[in-house]
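Table 4 source record.
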Amino acid sequence: MTSLWLWSITAGFRFSPAFLTDHAIWFLAVPAWTIALAPAYGVRISLSVFETIIRLLQAAALLLAAYLALYFYSPRYQLPRLMGLYVLWDGFLLVLAWRLIFAWFFSRDLFARRVLIVGGGEPGLTALRLLRDFDFRNSTVVALLDAPGARAETTPGYRSSSRDLDPDAAGSRETGSSVEGLPVIDASTPLLDCARDLEVNEIVLAHSGAQSDLFPALVECQELGIEIATMPQVYEELLHRVPVKHLESSWLFTSFVESVRAKDSSLVAKRAADLIGAAIGLVGLLILTPFIALAIWLDSGRPIVFRQVRRGRAGRDFVMFKFRTMVPDAERETGPRWSSAGDPRITRAGRLLRKLRLDELPNLINVLRGEMSLVGPRPERPEIVRLLVRDIPFYRSRLIVRPGLTGWAQVNHPYGDSVEDAVQKLEYDLYYLKHRSMLFDLRILLRTAG
């Protein structure tokens, strides 16, 4: 939407209504600008001037190359020579100006948050590091209140300290420990008194037991207008991932299942969108296949299309199609294993296909057959799934939906070749399953194209 009205302002600067009527092709600039800017969306990028300028320059270069190609092949005088540069320049300046205003506005004291973290241990450290790292929330963590069953001293990094919590706060108490420079308040301190003394307006619960142990006090804090959030909620909000390492087994059958069921009502619409998108994509596949096939054949011979068993929805296996990017019989000696950066098994043509994601285009056949969707968790091989299910909690949860041609993990995380990478991808996949919608799918598709 922002791209639409910014482009409209740009068009108003440079074009007359008659010009836009006679050259309707210019209205293609709206979706083109949106797709080109897709990698620039995101709160953290929006609030970074350097990142914004880099992404805008990338988008402008991409659109300039497309415009020059279109200008070369279009009829004479159909497109003016300089108007493309005008649109790019004006659009660049307007988007940059909007991002600067956005960053200035949301960094005001009006949006400043004073946060109290309740709960020690690794969850408390995770919440602390998140809130300190993502400074665009304009949050200040003022203290950590140790919770029953999560003593501060059990966590590496705590050290003795004799300084006050907040010298300026009324009734401030002395603490006997700190963590990464943050005062730690003893669990015996009443939560309501602590929140009042430190003038906090947000409490983050980083210990599962705190929700039940401190329930009456939490209700009183809410009555005062203090916001209550759990560490997993903050984790999801900031990273757009689900904190697999800090979830209890009950989460799978409460928060997660309820969210997933609420999204299942759109299954018919999603399947219809898959069929339409796959049909359109197959047109591009038919156009590109001769060129891709020739490149693969000249580089490493046959076969052109590679078939591989993958695990899909409900744990059912299916045969996935893709363009071959590795040497023939790449796993004859090693057996199934992840592909890593600089993998010698990848051919020269394969590296280019993987970089452009063109090797996945035959997946559209699987989409038409109902084995995959346009957007969803990427399907893994059964051998690797068995390994990950053994080592990673909740990994089976991603099998409750159809796997996707692209997904939230794919646009946020590079190729992975370890269990640690699989954990991070699973966090993105679970976030997608909880928040999926048609608009979210469209956003992922735009990010993929961008």
